[in-house]
Amino acid sequence: MPGTPYTLTLPNGLRIVAEHLPAVRSAAFQFLVPAGAVTDPDGQEGSATVLEGLAYRGAGSRNARELSDGLDALGVQRAGGAELEAASYGGALLADDLHAALEIYSDILLRPHLPADQLGAEQALALQKLERLEDSPSDKLFLRLRKAYYPGNYGRTALGTAEGVKALTAEAIRADHARRYRPEGSVMAVAGRFDWGALSETIHRLFGEWAGAAPPFLTPDNTGRERYVHIQKDTNQEQIGIMYPSVPVGHPEYYATRMALSVLSGGMAARLFTEVREKRGLCYAVRASHSNVRGSGAIVAYAGTTPERCQETLTVLIGELRRLAEGVTEAELTRARTGVLSDLVMQSEAARSRAAGIARDQYVLGRVRTMEEIREGVEAVTVEDIRAHLQRYPAEDFTIVTLGPVELEVQA
Amino acid sequence: MKFEKAILDNGLTIIGEHNPSALSLATGYFVRTGARDETAEVSGVSHFLEHMLFKGSERRSADDVNREFDEIGADYNAFTGEEYTVYYGAVLPEHQARMLDILTDMMRPSLRVEDFTMEKNVILEEIALYKDRPQFTVIDEVRSTYYQQHPLGQSVLGTAESITALERDQMYEYWQRRYAPNNLILAITGQFDWEATLRQAEESTRRWEPADSPRATPDFTPTSRVKVVQNEKIHRAHLAFVSPGVSAQDPQRYIADIIADMIGGGDGSRLYWELIEPGTADSVRLSHDEEDGAGAFFGYASCDPEKAQLVLDKIRGVLERVTVEGFREEEIVRAKRKVASALVLHDETPRGRLFHVGFDWQYRQEHRPLDEVIDRFLAVTPQDVQNFLARRPFDAMTVVALGPVASIA
User: Which of A96, A178, A184, A395 ranks highest by number of CB atoms within 10 Å?
Assistant: First the structure.
């Protein structure tokens, strides 16, 4: 198991976290810049996505083609995109080329050309991605569910709105870059094989001159959330989404929630899979997971099923969410614990998943939880902790969204 | 990375590749059976059977299988394709024996009627799920349009009709022929004990009887068809296209993979600059699929419906241009580099590595260490690429357009 991660904060506020993984010959890196949908300027929803796309269309001394060819020549497997709370940039590659790749990414983040003549193409892509949601029913459901749950900025999607995307101008994009692409508030994470001394030197050289602070983070707020929304659509399956309050990562009861969810939806012996799919054959896909934004946690449950069985599916699903508060068995908790701890070890075998994990921790929590800390947190949870936690955070006050041919009967 | 191999008297092949620095192990059964080995009557049986193996054996109920996997913290699943069915799991090394016991026991399922009847509902839900996702259905559609009567054109999921009509005894009969030990490979990778693996496999499969598990590999003449599946409920135009490639046994597959990457391997490929950069389409890709005795380039694009013809013409234009003009040398060098780093990243976990080790054996009865595979890619020369393109592989192309599109040519 890897040990304590390296941390570094540059004088300009950029926070760096890095974890050495002895078993790999690759390195993965991820930047999280506080330029997600939440802080898109009002009336310009979608700016995060368009800006992220434009950043690759030439930066520093390279035009768009040279930049792309430069990354490919290093074998960078690119990842990232605009998200709700951040714009993510990153990739993975053979460890020897890490420094050369970071060099190109420093141009992308600090010195993008943001060419005015390419704005139209990025807007066209953003509008098409919005349209594509219509052909992806579950994606559309989840976005609408979050919007119903968080009526404010946290209900936005990174894709923005058609109006917001169309309203963007080259000047607006430049101003947005100047405002939000700043070191104070940004995070950089590296996992895999590297030499920390050499890496921190490179980071100082590439990012030391960056200056400024991004606007402060907003607080998520779910007051006034919607209770039931139905989207009528002539599909083969009905999509069902349920969201209700829980605790965020970093909360003292977070691990109790995590273990409760694992009992509910961890493996194939977990309750939802057993009761909804195995015993009743109602669904192919059914699951529940923890949804976390800065300082706010929620449970999201999902099922997709054909119209004739959707009312029954909703009833069984809600029944299982509520039954959890009656308590879990020692055997269930033991299985949940084994699964979570085993996942933790296996995650540390892959540079990409670990880089994403520590980047997110640093960004949302302000620090990285070590593997040991997570292990201790998980092992400490008892059956009684879960029962007490679910008394305080019961499965009730649902926000429900359905998409499909049938509007369901929903009791608040 | 030391390699191990044994073939038991019953015909079961067991292979292993050690990785002393791994923290986990991955193991799985690779069954040489899939949609192509089905008759029309039992279309979808391979995939349905894959679900049924999780329903238990004489020794285990369905609940037992799921519970025991979870008890050892396994990251496990299964998948079915046109020509393989794979059951796998990754665990920490201390659970090796139990993992092998569950997986091996699954290969001898009870196929109880009540489980069969219940699981049929789940399969029908899975079919309904994919019907709502045109980006998946268009790929199935182009496959059957391209392969026509050839077995590789057969559907993995089957249809609601074929699944509804399927009976338990038909499945049992299929299982008996296809899950004989001589048609299975047990593979293991990462941090494992080989002697213990071998002993346990010998002991637990002693009563397994070999059987005749033939596979038809008829010749195939590539087709060039254009088909429109007009559907006004869909918002985007989903285009899929197929051209002939090379088989999993053909040494030219390394060249074909590099060519596919240069044409449509994501950002920076020829199709990216032609279609995504100007915002003409929102998605486009091309990959090369190597199959048993045949292979093909599979492409996909999505765009505004009114641009479907334009996008298709531009794709054809790119394919014609690379066929006539070829690629620049630095383009080939970059593609090789990209493919090599993708392989290293994919194979750095025992779970990722398992699939390459298992399929290398299933398709070619060979073990290729990762570094050797990378060397094969790096050895591709501009001359190899030119020779491959000289046969004009993209002249034959079958296209399907799905969505609110009336016609396409």
Answer: A395
